[in-house]
Amino acid sequence: MIQSQRLLNMDEKSPPDIEDSSPSIVKSTIGHFAQLTKNLVGANFSGKDLSGVNFKGANLNQADFTEADLNGANLNSTKINRGNFILADLNEANLSLSKLDNSDFSLANLSYARLIGSNLKGANLSRADLIAANLSGANLNSANLSGANLSGANLSGVYLIRSNINGADLIEANLSGADMREAKLINANLNGAYLKAANLTGASLNRAYLMGANLNQVYGMRANLSGAELKHAYLKDANLSQSNLNGAKFGGANLRGAQLSGANLRSAYLGAADLSHANLSGACLIHANLTRTDLAYANVENCRFGYNSGLSETMKKDLIQRGAILVEKS
Prior knowledge:
330 residues; two-stranded parallel ribbon
């Protein structure tokens, strides 16, 4: 009791000395101190067991949580600018509405964590585990999420402008309404992901996996999906005008009503894809595979075709009559 009172001296201006205390005293002391002073700037908690500790509303700017156990900890509404969470365990921790900009979460465990509405601008989350984490409405602009595991995560309405998400695992993640302008998702796995109405303008998704993904009503002008795998993906009413879709695989995909004007679909695989009512004006489909592709009522004005598998002579004549350009040599 005497030791606890000494550790909880309210006149202290910095975190109490708890180096020689038992784990239970350490956690209760830190939690009480955080609520009493709210000021833990620059504190060193590296390697500490802080599971379940209540840091709510505390100022933890530049604090060091390297390899700390924060399992189930409450960090709601905290300020942790430039904090260090490398290899920390934040499983099921609550970091909602927190200011975490420029903090380092590389290799950290954030599975099932809550980061709703948090500011993670410029944060480093490379190779972090964010399985089933809730980041809805969070600001991740210019953040590094390369190689991170975000499978099943809730990223609805997030801001990921110019973020690095290369090689990340986003299987069945919810990215509906996300702002991903100029984001890099090269080699990312988005199989089964939900991206309805997301903004992918200028985004790089080269060789990304989007099989069975929902991209209905996506706005992705000038996006790069060259070599991407979109088998059985949903792109109804998506806007991919002027995008690079060279060599992309759209087998069985639903592109009904999609805006593809000026898009590069050279060598793309569109076998059994639905392009009915799509706008292909000015697009390039040279060497594209159009076996069993539905082009009914599609706008093919000035769309360039040539050397296409699956196009019969009758179909070629029909496309030319509809304003298409056939570039094959006779």
